[in-house]
Structure formats: structure tokens, C-alpha cells
Amino acid sequence: MNDAAQQDGGTHQDGTRPEGPRHDGTESGGPGTPSRRSVLWTTASVAGAGLGLGGYGAGTASAAPARSPETAGADQASAPRRQGRTMVGVPFDRRSTVRVGLVGLGNRGGGMIDLFLAMEGVRVVAVCDPVRAKAERAAAKVTAAGQPSPAVYTKGENDYENLCRRGDIDLVYVATPWDFHFEMAKTALLNGKHVGVECPIALRLDQLWELVDLSERTRRHCMQLENCCYGRNEMRVLRMAHAGLFGDLLHGAGAYNHDLRGLMFDPEYYEGPWRRLWHTRLRGDLYPNHGFGPVANYMDVNRGDRAVSITSVGSPALGLAEYRRNNMPAGDPSWKETYIESDRTISLVQTAKGRVIRLEHDVSTPHPYSRVNSLGGTKGVFEDYPERIYLEPDHTNDQWGDFSAYARWDHWLWKEHANPPGGHGGMDYMLVFRLTQCMRLGLVPDFDVYDAATWTAPVPLSHLSIRAKGAPQQIPDFTRGEWKKARPGMDSERPEKA
Q1: How far, in Å, CA of 105 to CA of 206, rounded?
Q2: 358 in helix, strand or coil?
Q3: Alpha-helix residue ranges (DSSP H) falling in 14-124
Q4: Of the candidates 403, 398, 366, 399, which has an alpha carbon nearest to the alpha carbon of residue 383?
Q5: Residue 408 — φ and ψ, nearest 5°?
Q6: Backbone angles phi, psi at 210, to 5 degrees
Q7: How would you class 471 by CB atoms within 10 Å of its CB: exposed for 0-12, middle for 13-18, buried for 19 or more?
Q8: Alpha-carbon gap, residue 195 to 104, rounded angstroms
Q9: How far is it, in rounded angstroms, from Cα 55 to Cα 267?
Q10: Among 94, 250, 367, 400, who pairs with 442 as Cys (CB 3.0-4.6 Å)?
Q11: In Å, how far from its chain's centre is CA 88?
Q12: Angle separating helix axes 205-218 and 181-190, nearest 10 degrees
């Protein structure tokens, strides 16, 4: 999941720790207020008892009615009528200072606040978490950075609504458990705020469409953060692909293969623990964004090509039950859970141009960390973990070449910030730097609500495909036809006034 270098087990090739999960507060906001812990345990027990196959919830105890693959496909194919105007190419309003409100100050949010505070022209105005101690620690960081003391919101699970109502916030940053992402993003948009949300941005297709519609109606950007698109390797491959070094693009692959068993059974790390409980609800790829986002950028998805369909298969779900049997004492609440999530989910995404993207998800079995991150075309191929490349005419001996020899293709962000701080080997810093730079200078963001919806769509659709024994599921055109127009994205030009 997410990485603020202190969070996770295992390391990247460069010695940084792979992204570790984040979670929000979990204690009661006051007398009579249900705690996040109780909410997550309640929804999980219901999900484990019956939500798994008949439908899937989004953090509620009610199951969506089961639909046949044919019905689901028809629903996916039809785009609802546009309620506003497209957000394609819409710039931020220029501002001298970006005023930020942070919601969720656990592992992820508690680390990401350091990056917001490190940015020029960024002020943290408000922080929110039901656990007062977390909010107070975050507020202390703000004042230690020389900024005015932020407003603190700790009065229960819904106090984020009051943060979103403030008139002095430009961007709401959400780093809470997945169950709350959609409602928090929706609330921020309805209150006229741009919003950036950790992965996944929502968990159902109707929620993704609602966020697209709200972004268009409110004229505010809704963005999928922590998307792994700003890594050095990812941005170098992106520029090489756009320069034609891979020839005509044919295939790519991305993954989230990360052994999280120990963390998912740690009641302090994932309170509830909410992360593990999604394995009792959905069978598909729970976390596609990290792998899908970079490859979608290589192929200009939503900018000349689009993701059309997905077919998914999954292995048996054995890993978490075996880990529980070997490590958890009798009477532990986890013994009430039934895991249905495939230990290894493999999906194939087809694009309008006929290209193929392979996605993988595995957090339940022992293996080294890998996001796979590969791209192939008529002139050669790149593969990551470990990084290696083979391009004609540079290579002719069927032996992998040295990817470091292509450093001249580094994106300007990495040329100007060679050793950035923060998680994911510095890509988190790059994301925050570039996002707040676009806001200060009044630029179009590198990614938008259509990217957020597309990168997240495999969550519900892979579940439906696995239930339908691998039958393809149509991926909606969230752009409503705008994908046919070439436009800039992650491969940005350095602004004159950076």
C-alpha cells in the first residue's frame, strides 16, 4: 500500500521501504459515538457472514443485490448523461498559497503531512482525526515548521464534514481506511474543495461515476493520490515510450505483490483490522492503482487510447487462513472470518487500440515486493524488479541491458530533485511537489478524476469477472468520448515559473 518510509516491512531496490498502509484514527470521538474500531469490526463480521459472493458492500452492512454478468456488463457500458462540463484540460485557479486540510493522520497521513510542510507556498490549515493524540501530533508538526497552529477536528467520525465546510481550504487530502474514501471525497467536492484521495478512491462503479459527475458539476478536481506514477523509473520509461524508443506499444504489466500478512493481523497497524477484512468481501484485485496507473500513462490511456475491458482469474484463498492457523491464538477475532479474496489475482485489460495490460495482486503469500512495471513494444521491452531493458538497435545479443544507461531520459522533476525525501523512494515527494506546483501556478493537473476512476475500476470489475469465471467485464468510458483527443498528462514540460 502506502509508504512513508517508516511504515512497512521489506525494502525497495534502492534501499527505501516499500509503501506501507495508512489508516485513520480508530477511537471513539466522545461519549455515545461509535468508534472506528467498532464500525469496522461490525461491517466486517457482516461481510464475512454473507456479503462475499452475493454482492459487495462499501463499508456498510447492506449487500448490493446480485447481478448477472450480462446485466453488470450492460450497466458498465452505458455512461450516464453528463450533468456538467468535462474536467479534461481544466486548470487550477492560480494562487500564491495552497491551503490544505488533512483528514486521517495514521500511518499514511501522519507521514505525508511532513511533505506538505516541506513545500514552498503550502500551508496546512486544518487537521482531522477521531484520535485526538494523532491530530495533536500533526498540529505540533505544523507549528514546528513555523506555520500558524492549524484548526483541529477530533469530534467523532463525521467531524471531517466541518473541516470541509471551511472557507480557507483549497485542497482536502484524505488518508483514511478505504471504507470512508468515497464519502469524504464527495463531501469535499460538494463544499467546493479540490480533493486528493489515497488508493482506492472508491470501491463501486456507481461511486466512481458519482465522483466523476460531482467533479464536473462542482468544477473541482478529484484526484487519485499515492498512484506510483512519479517514480524515477516510471517517469523515465514514460518519456522513452513517448519518444518512440519502444516502437509501437503492445503490452505492459503492473502489480501490487506485497506480503502484508503480518501487518494485516496486527491489530495496532490496521485498526479493526480494516485492511484484512476486505478479504472477506471481495474476490478481485483490491489494489490495482499502483500497477495500472504507470502503464496507463505509458499507453496514453484517456489521452488517445482507453481501457475497454477486463478479464480476471483468481487462485484459491488459502494464505491468510494458513497464516492465522500458524500465528493467531484461539479466541482471536480473526477466527470468525472467512476469506474469499484470491491469494493471487491476475487480470488482463484490453485497450481500444488492442494493447494488453496485465495486472496482478497478491498480499497474502510470501514473496518479495514487486510492482512488476513492464512495457513492451515493437522495438523492445523494459522490466522492473529488478530493472532491466532490451531495445533495438542498442541491444542485439538477447541479453538484458543496463537501464541506468538511459538516465538522460529522466523527467525534469527527477533532474531537479535528484534525492527527494519521503516514501516510495521519493515519488511521494514528487507527487506533492508537482500537485501543489500546479495549484500555485494555475496549471492543469497531470492526472484527473477520469484517471482516478479508470485506475480504480478493476476493483469491482475484477470481482465480477472472477465470479463469472473469467468473463470479460466492460470498463466504462468515464471521459464520455474525450479519450479520443490527445492531451498532456504525466509527461509534463517544466513550467517557466517553477
Answers
A1: 28
A2: strand
A3: 36-46, 52-54, 69-77, 107-117
A4: 403
A5: -65, -15
A6: -65, -40
A7: middle
A8: 13
A9: 27
A10: 94
A11: 20
A12: 20
Helix residue spans in 166-231 (DSSP H): 181-190, 205-218
Inter-residue contact 101 to 69 (CB < 8 Å): no
Residue 66 near residue 54 (C-beta atoms within 8 A): yes
Q: Which amino acid is at 329?
A: P
Task: Pick the closest to residue 384 from 259, 298, 303, 462 (CA basis).
Answer: 298
Look at residue 66 and give its three-state secondary structure: coil
Give the contacts of 413 (CB within 8 A, at least 6 positions apart). Answer: 230, 235, 430, 433, 434
Separation between Cα atoms, residue 81 and residue 265, nearest integer Å: 44
Q: Is 149 exposed, middle or buried (0-12, 13-18, 19+ CB in 10 A)?
A: exposed
Run of H or E residues at 122: strand 122-128
C-alpha cell at 5: 518510509
d(CA 3, CA 215): 27
Residue 222 β-bridge partners: 195
Residue 453 C-alpha cell reads as 476512476
SS3 78: coil
Helix (H, G, I), strand (E, B) or coil at 11: coil
Tell me the longest C-alpha to C-alpha distance in the chain.
71
Tens digit of pLDDT at every position of the chain (498 positions): 333 322 333 333 232 333 333 333 322 333 333 344 444 433 333 333 332 222 333 322 222 333 333 333 334 457 899 999 999 999 999 999 999 999 999 989 999 999 999 999 999 999 999 999 999 999 999 999 999 999 999 999 999 999 999 999 999 999 999 999 999 999 999 999 999 999 999 999 999 999 999 999 999 999 999 899 999 999 999 999 999 999 999 999 999 999 999 999 998 888 778 999 999 999 999 999 999 999 999 999 999 999 999 999 999 999 999 999 999 999 999 999 999 999 999 999 999 999 999 999 999 999 999 999 999 999 999 999 999 999 999 999 999 999 999 999 999 999 999 889 887 789 999 999 999 999 999 999 999 999 999 999 999 999 999 999 999 999 999 999 999 999 999 999 999 875
